[in-house]
Amino acid sequence: MKISLTDREADVMQSLWEHGASTVAEVRERLADPLAYTTVLTVLRTLEAKGYVGHEEAGRGHRFFASVRQQAARKNAVQHLTDKLFKGSAELLFSHLVSEQKLSADQISRMRQLLAERADEEKPQ
């Protein structure tokens, strides 16, 4: 499943991923932007129509929950970014991230470790 989110949809999904099943009012309270209740409901209904969110009855209202995993959404977003801006090259994306970010020694060390682990996985047994 290809997952594509607008910025507002991503904010709503982030709330559901972090806090689990929530009412419209609960999601609304967690958003940085002061959105109307009906706007948040519309975003949730749109996400539900896309298959990214489901709901369960909760008294007179609904509790909405994420139907897709955050990791799947991240993977899709990175792939989209890589395809659109880096000619499909993960190496170009990585080079850009390393050269354009102010990385701490710890971050560089963790990146080296991840690359070393990946290289070990690729070695023939």
CATH domain class of the largest domain: Mainly Alpha
What is the CATH topology classification name of the largest domain? Answer: Arc Repressor Mutant, subunit A
Structural class: mainly alpha
Please mark out the parts with pLDDT under 50 across 5 or more consecutive residues, or reply none: none
* Count of strand segments: 2
Q: What percent of residues are in strands?
A: 5-15%
**Gross geometry:** elongated
What does this structure look like?
The chain is mainly α. The chain has two domains: 7-66, Winged helix-like DNA-binding domain superfamily/Winged helix DNA-binding domain (Arc Repressor Mutant, subunit A, Orthogonal Bundle), CATH 1.10.10.10; 89-125. It is built from six helices and two strands, in the order αααββααα. Strands 1-2 form a two-stranded antiparallel ribbon. Helix 2 (24-30) packs across helix 3 (37-50). The model has no long low-confidence stretch (mean pLDDT 93).
